[in-house]
Automatic annotation (TrEMBL):
Alphabetized InterPro entries for the sequence: Hexapep, Hexapep_transf_CS, Hexapeptide_acetyltransf, Trimer_LpxA-like_sf
Keywords: Acyltransferase, Repeat, Transferase
UniProt protein name: Acyltransferase
Xref: Pfam families: Hexapep
Keyword Cell membrane: no
Length: 205
């Protein structure tokens, strides 16, 4: 009989995941989750996953260089088809949400020096850090070397090329700060002020 979680598409409890160096309790993974890594890993390097982490279908974790770490904190949820590269080093804090088909790219090929054929040039890694409680929306791309602050929100489809301050909402290509969390967006703020002025003019308190 099939596991009821498989029938609903909900990730199932797993005690192991091949290619992971440390796996916390309460781990869940959907079908097609994969880990790709190359070379001999140096002491202290590798892939480390915290407690109560959930990886949905076809999430891919990648660790290329032997001296880098891919660390996923506690209670992290990574949704369907996300691509998570630790080639240049990647640290994901606790309680982070990563949307469907998002990509965290911590490395890329050299393009300014070397061969005309980019595929022949060396891979350059720059670590990505995602602060606790952040949310990376569906289809967003986080480029090498970016730090996303605690509680920040990255809009769906955004391309993040620079650091995102804590508790800020960013969107676009390239991603730009829209407003802080916990406050209304500027358009809504203007509309709210206009409504208040209209009500005041009518004598409504």
């Amino acid at each position: 009989m099939r596991n009821p979680h498989e029938l609903t598409g909900w990730p199932c409890h797993r005690n192991t995941l091949e290619g992971v160096d440390s796996l916390g309790a309460g781990f869940r993974a959907g079908p097609g989750v994969s880990v790709f890594r190359t070379g001999n890993v140096h002491p202290g390097a590798g892939i480390f996953i915290g407690e109560d982490v959930m990886l949905f279908d076809h999430v891919r974790l990648l660790l290329g260089d032997a001296d880098t770490r891919l660390t996923i904190g506690n209670r992290v949820v990574i949704n369907v088809g996300a691509y998570v590269s630790g080639e240049g080093g990647l640290q994901i804090g606790d309680d982070v949400l990563i949307g469907p088909h998002a990509k965290l790219l911590s490395a890329g090929h050299e393009i300014h020096e070397g061969h005309l054929e980019v595929s022949r040039n060396p891979i350059i890694g720059m670590p990505i850090r995602v602060g606790a409680g952040a949310w990376i929306g569906a289809g967003a791309i986080v480029m090498p070397g970016v730090t996303i602050g605690e509680g920040a929100v990255v809009g769906a489809g955004s391309v993040v090329t620079r650091d995102v301050p804590a508790r800020m909402v960013v969107a676009g290509n390239p991603a730009r700060v829209l407003h802080a969390r916990g406050r209304q967006a500027p358009l809504l703020q203007r509309w709210s002020r206009l409504v208040k002025r209209m009500l005041a003019a009518l004598g409504v308190r």
